[in-house]
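We modelled the chain as a single entity of 213 amino acids. Its sequence is:
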Amino acid sequence: MSTQPAPAPLLIACALGIEHLALRRRDRGDTGGPVTVLRTGMGPRAAERSVARLLADPAFADAAVLATGFCAGLAPGMHPGDLVVAEETRDPRSTVACVGTELLVKELARILPGRTVHTGPLTGSDHVVRGPERSALRATGAIAVDMESAATLLSAVRSGERPVAAVRVVVDAPEHELVRIGTVRGGISAFRVLRSVLPAFYEWHRNVLLPRR
């Protein structure tokens, strides 16, 4: 009698304690396999190191990796609580294509009806982006920016063949800049949205799993 291989795990990476808090759920539902939520720490270097360290464990050799948390929207008309599903992540070193974007958009629209979901390139930065710099990044074609997604996905694909994706919640936007996350209504709205996204991640995981080698 043949034994079915264990499903590949899902690694969900975020940077901040408030993001990790939003993603901690006791009821995981049908996840399609083991799920680990990793708090990497802030910034691209911390994200890259944390993800590489975890993926070096043979138990995560084929893990699907999804970067998530908050981001800054770049396009006019974006609002706190909007969702960004990356078609690719970019930083000065590389561009990483995301897998299963259409499925994520569909599931997020189902789970969070009425929430706007944006798709396009998600760019990386090593600092918080403000004012004119936001316009300069928008001119490159990117729709949002954060400090960890590009580094997370680059580290993931360097560690081996695996499906990767990035989903972010807009916490500030050109017309809605925040001083600190969680201190105004926009931050609270983004936190509540992030608390609701896990079922979409699980559905993505079930559909992009690679067979164990």
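As a brief sanity check on the tokenised model: The first strand starts at residue 10 and ends at 14. Residues 180-184 have pLDDT under 50 and may be disordered.
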